[in-house]
Amino acid sequence: MVTNKFLQNIDNIRKVLKDEGVVLTKNFFEKKEIDNLSVEYNYLDKELTNKEIFKNKPVIVFWKHLVGEQKRIAAFDQMPNLWNLIKDKIVPFVKKITQRKKLQLLETIIFNKPGTNNSEGGGGNTLHWHQDVAYFPLKPNNQVAVWFPLESVSIDGGCLHYALKSHKLGIRGSTDLHTRKKFDGENRELIPEDPQKAGFKVVPMEMSNQDILIHDGYTWHYSGPNKLKDYVRKGISVRFIVDECVFDPRPGQGAAFTKQITINPGEKFEGLPFPTM
Q1: Domains of the chain (ranges plus CATH)?
Q2: Distances (CA, A) of 178 to 10, 24, 67, 127
Q3: Which terminal residue of the chain has fewer beta carbons within 10 Å of its beta carbon, N or C?
């Protein structure tokens, strides 16, 4: 449920999201909620080997930020604490902010960004400037994402950076997130390599593990390397469709969720992996 302290500030949260494309809400989660979720994640992370994409239910993508690392796939019955947080706390909050009666779950990813002393490559790779909608085959492409860490995250630890108000410029091209190489067939204008030099205010979002970010699907963002020794930055991203849409594929849209799609171009975007919340 959405507690009274957030209901009192919901108009301001909504205004910031609309004006700047991203809003950080402090102390959204209770400590025990994240503690329980961290235990659940750490246990599954050690055991998970599956790389098969499920066709009939939502998935959780485990993505380690190392070049060449293959994504692993879990189901929500393996992380019931995460599902309950999404269903009972995140969805009602996002509904209030977006003023939508229903949301459609699009994708859930847990990002793992290793620290500088990691034996598998170290540093945790930079994920270059991008916007979510460029990678999703939807029309209209109206979506929001929430992001929250399982531990406090700083600039040196690889926190997210946002180019404020960039969501107002519409869609840009999609690139490889590790190399910034443009995908074959991509003919849209790209996000500038340094949005600050292009006139945007860029803000790093340092967070505690009780905070939550919400950003518009068009907002430009990136995360730098994790420079800290003996620290692994783990962050969870949950994306929602906020308007009814159709399947509209194009180059550069090869995320795990595309393997779950069983409809034809132009048909209403729906299916068991993408439930209405």
Answers
A1: 4-256 (2.60.120.620)
A2: 35, 25, 7, 5
A3: N
- Is pTM beyond 0.90? Reply is yes
At residue 167's C-alpha, the angle toward residues 166 and 170, to 5°, is 105
Q: Is residue 249 packed enough to be buried (19+ CB in 10 Å), middle (13-18) or exposed (0-12)?
A: middle
Helices (H), the chain: 4-7, 10-20, 31-47, 80-85, 91-98
- Secondary structure (3-state) at 138: strand
Q: Is the peptide bond before 140 cis (omega within 30 degrees of 0)?
A: yes
Structure tokens at 132: 């979510």
CB 151 within 8 A of CB 29: no
Rounded to the nearest 5 percent, the helix, strand and coil shares of the chain are 25, 25, 50
Tokens of 181: 């190489």
pLDDT of residue 3: 46
Q: Is 45 exposed, middle or buried (0-12, 13-18, 19+ CB in 10 A)?
A: middle
Tokens read off for 207: 């967070």
Question: Which residue in this structure is represented by tokens 């599902």?
Answer: 83
Closest to 134 (Cα-Cα) out of 76, 180, 88? 180
pLDDT single digits (tens) 157-194:
999 999 999 999 999 998 988 888 888 888 899 999 99
CA dihedral 207, 63, 218, 265 (to 10 degrees): -160
